[in-house]
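Attaching the record inline, Q. Sequence:
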Amino acid sequence: MTYPTNLEAVSGLPGTWMVDVIPATYTINQQFEVYTTKGWYQPDANGITSSVPLGTSGPFVVKVDNEQILCSSISGNIITVWASGGLNGRGWNSTTMASHSAGGSANQHVTAIYGSVQGGLPSAGTTQTFTSGTAVQNTASTWATYYIGITGGAAGTVSVAIGSTSAATTTIIPAATGNAVSSQTVHIRVPSSWWIKVTTSVATINASSVIVLDSI
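Structure, as predicted:
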C-alpha cells in the first residue's frame, strides 16, 4: 500500500482545538476529538474551497501544533487517523510525531491544511473551436477551465472576457500590443452556463482549445 496522492492544499479554513490528548505514538484505529469541524470543506480541482465537507471524498491532513496528521474520516467532531497496509498518517509530510494536549478558544492549535480533490481529479472534457470576437458557452454542469493556444507576434493582441450572457462583458485579459506572443497558452476558468469570448488582432487562435472540466 502507498500513501494517497490526490491531495490539494486548502487555506482560509477556520481553526479549532483538541478537546482530548493524543500521544506521541500511533495506535490501531487511533482517533482524536476536536471542538468543531464547522467550515471545513474539500478543495475542488483548482484548489478552490468547495461546498463539500472535508473527508467526504477521501483523506485529508490536519496540522496539530507542529505535526501534520493524515486522516481518513470525520464523524461528528471525531477524526480518525489514516492507516493502510502497515502505514499510518502520524508525522505526515516529514513532520515529527508528538503528544498533543487539549487546547481552547485562546489556543486554536488545529487547522485543516490539505483535502482530497472534491469528486476526484479533473476529468478531460471536449475541445472547443473559437472564432475571434464570438462568445461560446460553457454548457457543462460544472465550472470548466479553457486552455487556449494563441500564436502571435510583436504587434499581436489577445483579450479574453467572460460573462453570464453572450455579451461577455467581464474582461479577464485586456488587449495590449504584443501580449499575443508566439506559442502561448492562456487558461481561463468559466462557471457553468457562462460565456467566454476570445478576441485577437494580428494573432491566431489554435483550431481546437482543450477544456478540462472541474470534478462533479
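The mean pLDDT is 86. Residues 7-116 form one domain.

More tomorrow.
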